[in-house]
Write a structure and sequence with these properties.
This protein is α/β, with parallel strands linked by helices. The chain has one domain: Aldolase class I (TIM Barrel, Alpha-Beta Barrel). The chain contains 8 helices and 14 strands. It has an 8-stranded parallel beta barrel with strand order 3-4-7-8-9-10-13-14, surrounded by 5 helices. Strands 5-6-12-11 form a 4-stranded antiparallel β-sheet, with no helix packed on it. Helix 1 runs parallel beside helix 2 and helix 5 runs parallel beside helix 6. The protein is globular. The protein starts with 10 loop residues before the first strand and ends in a 16-residue tail after the last helix. The structure holds flavin mononucleotide. The site of flavin mononucleotide (FMN) has 26 residues, from strand 6 and strand 12.
Length: about 300
């Protein structure tokens, strides 16, 4: 373990003690196993693997990623090998990464989510994230728009595993507080706020959307105030519910803003495509900034934002 982790970076999250409040966001570090050779996984308290379904999903044809403004649009379509092949390929190697791995389950109904979650637990993940908010599913449906559909998925997963369960929600929800309350009631140990926001862009030459799925998930810097609003609203309404903030984090200052709003951990996503080793820089920036603001630990910032 490197000197990156000190009392300044330790962070409680539900029943877990993270060595760092930084988490790698699902879909931006692949299986985590391969990312270990290019990223700086020692800076993270946990790293979340790409979402996995029961059966293999081929994903969408290219192009499926496009830069848009200062963010990026993606419509990967959750390409993954299915839980059996995933477990066989990556399960034996999860321990080699040097970071606790969280699995991410996706599916079409509660039973499929539960089956995938059980497979992830058997493969050795530390926690299961329930991806209720993928913007790229065929048919455009999204569990996270509906509190009771979200709760049904989380309840099924909760029954299927004994590791901590989290629910990843969407900034597109009409009432994200209601969805967070429903999944907490159904047994989620924490919520991840948030996944990407729906977006679209067009190519003037072809007059077609930039990605084959048309509408996709928009992420990166422009998502930060939107996701931060979700964190703050949920924390104010449900102060006991732990939160992993996620959206547009690029600096240590961004991390501290999420902590102030009520997050206990903060996920890095799109930044990994431009700067795979961003975790180490961002953690150092956050600790330096904490010292400048006379805090001995990052944990001291959690939920400390005050209103006017
Ligand atoms: C290319 C790409 C693939 C993604 N795949 C997944 C996924 O499989 N499961 C998931 O829960 N989120 C997925 N996400 C969403 C990210 O985990 C994260 O919630 C989102 O990008 C917002 O964070 P950011 O602004 O730091 O990128 C993906 C994002 C990108 C850019």
């Amino acid at each position: 373990m490197s000197s990156l982790h000190t009392v300044a970076t330790a962070m409680p999250l539900a029943s877990l003690s993270l060595r760092s409040p930084l988490v790698a966001a699902s879909g931006t570090v692949g299986s985590v196993v391969d990312f270990a050779s290019v990223g700086s996984l020692d800076a993270y308290g946990a790293a979340t693997a790409k979402s996995v379904s029961r059966d293999p999903w081929p994903g969408r044809p290219a192009p499926r990623i496009a830069p848009v403004g200062t963010g990026m649009l993606n419509g990967i379509g959750i390409q993954n090998p299915g839980i059996a092949a995933w477990s066989q390929t990556y399960g034996p190697r999860l321990g080699d990464t040097g970071v606790p791995i969280w699995g991410s389950a996706v599916g079409g109904d509660p039973a499929e989510f539960a089956e995938v979650a059980a497979g992830l637990e058997s493969a050795g993940v530390q926690a299961v994230e329930v991806n209720l908010s993928c913007p790229n599913l065929e048919g455009g449906g999204m569990f996270a728009l509906d509190p009771s559909a979200s709760a049904a998925v989380v309840a099924a997963v909760r029954q299927a595993v004994s590791v901590p369960v989290s629910a990843k929600l969407s900034p597109n929800s009409e009432d994200i507080v209601a969805v967070a309350a429903a999944v907490a009631e159904a047994g989620a140990d924490w919520v991840v706020l948030t996944n990407t926001v729906w977006g679209v862009g067009f190519d003037l030459e072809t007059r077609k959307p930039l990605i084959t799925g048309g509408i996709g998930g928009y992420s990166g810097a422009p998502l930060k105030p939107i996701a931060l609003r979700c964190v703050w609203s949920v924390h104010q309404a449900l102060p006991e519910l732990p939160i992993v903030g996620c959206g547009g984090v690029r600096t240590g200052r961004d991390v501290i803003e999420y902590l102030l709003a009520g997050a206990s951990a903060v996920a890095l996503g799109s930044i990994h495509f431009a700067e795979p080793r961003a975790g180490r820089r961002i953690l150092r920036e956050a600790v330096r900034l904490a010292r400048r603001h006379e805090a001995r630990s990052l944990a001291e910032f959690v939920g400390e934002a005050s209103s006017w």
